[in-house]
Amino acid sequence: MKTSNVFTVLLTVIMTSAIYSQDRTEVRNEINKGIIKKKVAMKTYLIEREIPEAGKMTAEQLKGISQKSFSVLKEMGSDIEWLHSYVADDKVYCLYRAENEELIREHAEKGGFPVNSIQVVSTKIGPGTAKN
């Protein structure tokens, strides 16, 4: 009799665990689908920022700017994402993904960053494009 009860309890625990695990997997999959759909809906933007002598900034100055940008992005949430930036002589070119251009401008305002132009990136090409 005791063996039968232990078996029943064990079977119940195993079944409950399997159902719970399946439910968690389904919930995780649904969340990931939403995130993927959101990322696909976001556009990529090229931002031109005129910053005198940007190319002469020290690593410490660039780190400070990056930290400020990151803290503003963290505050703004997942509707805007910084991909990377290129620093040239008197300009910085930044690539962002965002739901809309207004978020790019809001980020710049909150961070105290100049915005001289914002362009939506329509496509990306490279050496592989020539081979196709």
Automatic annotation (TrEMBL):
Stored InterPro entries: SCO4226 (IPR042557), SCO4226-like (IPR025336)
Gene3D superfamilies associated with the record: ORF SCO4226, nickel-binding ferredoxin-like monomer
Domain of life: Bacteria
Name of this chain's protein: Membrane protein
Organism whose genome encodes this protein: Flagellimonas lutaonensis
